[in-house]
């Protein structure tokens, strides 16, 4: 069993650490976050480990996880490299879906092996995430040897690893942003539109659940072009234009989103029509 040190232990990192600790796959060593209090909170959730106050307080480990936001990855890697806590041959990885492992270059220059793993799921609540992680696709890129080790570690807690191209991660990650982050934004706009149009909140919630679940099931079963319904799917540009005006008057940002999404919907409908024409 190897030992894992963690620098930056947010929702994703603490979820994974707890799963590894519970499975007996890794021993959790030192945990460093922005404050001793948050480090202690992370250790309490994980169930093992030591809350560190600084890099100087961290002991050696064969594996290091940088669970910091994208904007902090490069600076964190530089600071960790300068701390001389990482030894040649140690593995260091981060969890970003956007940033490639190359951002850890200062550590590679000191002999560390570097990689990244992006678990494709929402970690909004670690307590819930630990119950839903099994089956999660996990995109892996970086040093081949370390990537193979990480494949094993993620499989051990129910993950499904797949290989990523580090140079194409920004586009890859945009897919997750559309499928998850923007979905939340769109559903919030839908809920506000229902309520502001006079629908009782409890009825709006029921409507939102039914229509969004149905749409997702249709996309998964039929594919996007054949799952599309509504005025854009029917080519009714007049209705779309009139509705876009109403939405813009209600909420200017939502109106711009409606306009952009309508353009994508018309393009999707055109792809469906072209496919059906070609099949005849």
From TrEMBL:
UniProt cross-references to InterPro entries, sorted A to Z: 6-PGluconate_DH-like_C_sf, DUF2520, NAD(P)-bd_dom_sf, OxRdtase/DH_put_Rossmann_dom, TM1727-like_C_sf
Domain DUF2520: 136-263
Domain Putative oxidoreductase/dehydrogenase Rossmann-like residues, every copy: 5-119
UniProt-recorded name of the protein: DUF2520 domain-containing protein
Lineage: Bacteria, Pseudomonadati, Pseudomonadota, Betaproteobacteria, Rhodocyclales
């Amino acid at each position: 069993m190897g030992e894992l040190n963690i620098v930056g232990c947010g929702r994703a990192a603490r979820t994974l650490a707890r799963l590894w600790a519970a499975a007996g796959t890794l021993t959790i060593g030192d945990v460093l976050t922005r404050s001793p209090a948050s480090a202690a909170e992370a250790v309490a959730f994980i169930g093992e480990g030591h809350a560190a106050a600084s890099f100087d307080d961290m002991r050696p480990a064969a594996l290091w996880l940088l669970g910091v936001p994208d904007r902090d990855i490069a600076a964190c890697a530089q600071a960790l490299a300068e701390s001389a806590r990482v030894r040649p041959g140690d593995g260091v990885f981060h969890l970003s879906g956007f940033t490639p492992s190359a951002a850890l270059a200062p550590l590679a220059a000191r002999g560390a092996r570097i990689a990244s793993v992006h678990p494709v799921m929402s970690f909004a609540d670690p307590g819930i995430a630990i119950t839903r992680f099994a089956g999660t696709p996990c995109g892996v890129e970086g040093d081949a040897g370390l990537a193979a080790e990480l494949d094993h570690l993620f499989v051990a807690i129910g993950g499904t690893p797949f290989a990523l191209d580090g140079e194409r991660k920004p586009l890859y990650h945009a897919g997750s942003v559309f499928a998850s982050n923007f979905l939340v934004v769109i559903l919030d706009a839908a809920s506000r539109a229902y309520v502001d149009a006079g629908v009782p909140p409890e009825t709006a919630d029921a409507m939102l659940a039914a229509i969004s679940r149905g749409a997702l099931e249709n996309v998964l079963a039929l594919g996007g072009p054949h799952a599309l319904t509504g005025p854009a799917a029917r080519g009714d540009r007049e209705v779309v234009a009139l509705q876009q005006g109403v939405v813009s008057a209600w909420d200017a940002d939502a109106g711009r989103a409606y306009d952009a999404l309508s353009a994508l919907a018309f393009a999707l409908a055109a792809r469906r029509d072209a496919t059906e024409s070609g099949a005849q």
